[in-house]
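**User:** Everyone, produce a chain:

**Assistant:**
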Amino acid sequence: MKTKANGITINYQIDGPEGAPWLVFSNSLATSTAMWDGQAAALQSDFRVLRYDQRGHGGTEAPSGHYAFATLLDDALGLLDALGIAKAHFAGLSMGGATALGLAEQHPDRLDRVIVSDSPCQSTPQSSQQWEERIAVAQQQGIEALVEPTIERWFPPETVAKHPPHLDKVRAMIRATPVNGFIGCAAALADHDYASAATSVRRPVLFIVGEKDGATPAAMRKLHDKVAGSRFVELPGAGHISNMDRPAEFNRALRDFLAA
């Protein structure tokens, strides 16, 4: 399904019974609503599950140029408004995780419980440089040149060596990402900081991260320490796309947190 919000056409999918609590899932860079298939299947009996493609991804419009992260927050709010959703649980991974924390800081009245997965929620000089390098690759060589390097960053070597089916699903999502969308959102990721204001968050927050997601577990432990009453879950053996690496454990953590 599609609707106009914040000046663009946003693609979304709804599962679950009318009248159930809303649970929104926000995708990472170079993925789509399909990254949340496992979560929607597991949780749609108890929640009205809303998945949407972030700006420039999946079936959502992909304007040219660099996007500001504030625009991604406005997209999410615009979608909630368009669908008449006053308040929702909100979950996001990587880019979607930063979206979740940014909304919790700036629009707490629109959120209930918040799940931040596999995101330090801020850029650094080093990460900004890396994003600029990836933007250059996308501009000069296209998305295909980013597929395998991205898989190698996102998943532990032992996972890649086993060739589990979800890796090909992720490869397909990366390949389907419009160049405009990748460049726009990569620019947003190169210049954002929701970690500094994390102490202001008053919504219940679950921080969940793959054990083998590079330096992200340590960064997210620091976020957990900043947010009073928050929970922290580290998924053994999981990489950056932890919900697809360890779906059963990820879903259990979400269900326990949302039921608290």
Observations:
- The mean pLDDT is 98.
- The chain has one domain: 2-259.
